[in-house]
């Protein structure tokens, strides 16, 4: 497989960010994961760069390794070939064209490593049973190990094991092409944001319920917590994407519940601190506010320059469906009033 990295072409593209991509094309062979990692390290490819895949497949084990490199480097995946158009000296932004491509067989395993996974119009996505060529008796055991490895890998990437069943049910000499709806059903594609993942944890004297989501705006977390002697608290961990100053200094900070139907102004009582690539926001909640959060259909936090500003930074309200029981249990067990 071949890899080509393209970075920003103009000063405006550098200022705006996001004008980077990797084209990955050809047959997947041994050593390709090392080649991709070397390119990423040498070129300084930043997180959230999209890898455009155009491949009919190849070595399945190497496909998993490529997906693991993509995952570890926090890259996104898409299908096709992204090409720069001819540029004139006064172009502030250089035109780019996405040409349709295919992601087949082992290339689908590479694709699965994307932090966000996109399925553009005209793309082709096909699967079949993975098998060794010219099998010998020992390859039966190797195939079983490979299948177990693929299942574990897909689960780690948040993809339904029903996807593996589709592959296993298609003969290795045939190809099952999957639609966008089928890929979305099995969580192989995410679009611009992943589903919210909820979890409950306890640390020291603090019990909390956390929602986590990846999107084109970064990886964000919202947390409803209760600590002994402190009470209820709200935390947000916001991937800053170079906007630490705005996130820490914009004057308006509001919790938003049920989409944006309910707002709680916390501008004067929240703390905001940079933490590596993130900004961590924290505020103590009144018991009634904690109840509103716990019983909401979604919640997040918006940070704006003024009340009139239409554009916000922060975390769009996260759907609480997957964490509803945990959020409500936390509130009901920790509230002080009857």
UniProtKB/TrEMBL annotation:
InterPro entries xref list: ClpP/crotonase-like_dom_sf (IPR029045)
Naturally occurring in which organism (per UniProt): Sulfitobacter dubius
Name of the protein in question: Uncharacterized protein
């Amino acid at each position: 497989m071949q890899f080509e990295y393209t970075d920003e072409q103009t000063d405006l593209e550098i200022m705006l960010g996001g004008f980077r991509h990797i084209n990955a094309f050809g047959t997947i062979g041994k050593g390709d994961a090392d080649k991709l990692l070397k390119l990423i390290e040498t070129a300084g490819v930043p997180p959230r760069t999209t890898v455009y895949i155009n491949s009919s497949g190849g070595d399945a084990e190497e496909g998993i390794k490529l997906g693991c490199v993509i995952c570890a480097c926090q890259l996104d995946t898409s299908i096709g070939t992204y090409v720069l158009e001819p540029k004139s000296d006064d172009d502030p932004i250089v035109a780019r064209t996405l040409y349709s491509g295919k992601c087949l067989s082992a290339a689908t395993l590479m694709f699965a490593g994307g932090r966000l996974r996109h399925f553009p119009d005209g793309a082709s996505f096909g699967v079949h049973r993975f098998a060794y060529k010219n099998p010998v008796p020992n390859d039966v055991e190797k195939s079983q190990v490979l299948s177990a490895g693929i299942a574990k890998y897909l689960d780690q990437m948040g993809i339904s094991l029903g996807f593996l069943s589709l592959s296993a049910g298609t003969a290795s000499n045939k190809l099952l092409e999957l639609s966008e709806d089928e890929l979305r059903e099995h969580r192989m594609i995410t679009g611009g944001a992943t589903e919210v993942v909820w979890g409950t944890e306890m640390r020291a004297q603090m019990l909390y319920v956390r929602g986590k989501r990846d999107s084109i705006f970064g990886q964000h977390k919202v947390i409803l917590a209760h600590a002994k002697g402190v009470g209820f608290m709200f935390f947000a961990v916001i991937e800053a994407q170079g906007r630490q100053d705005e996130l820490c200094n914009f004057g308006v900070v509001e919790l938003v519940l049920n989409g944006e139907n309910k707002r709680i102004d916390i501008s004067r009582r929240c703390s905001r601190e940079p933490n590596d690539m993130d900004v961590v926001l924290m505020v103590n909640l009144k018991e009634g506010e904690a109840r509103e959060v716990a019983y909401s259909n979604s919640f997040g936090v918006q940070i704006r320059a003024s009340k009139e500003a239409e554009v916000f930074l922060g975390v769009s309200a996260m759907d609480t469906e997957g964490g509803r029981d945990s959020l409500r249990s936390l509130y009901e067990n920790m509230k002080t009033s009857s």
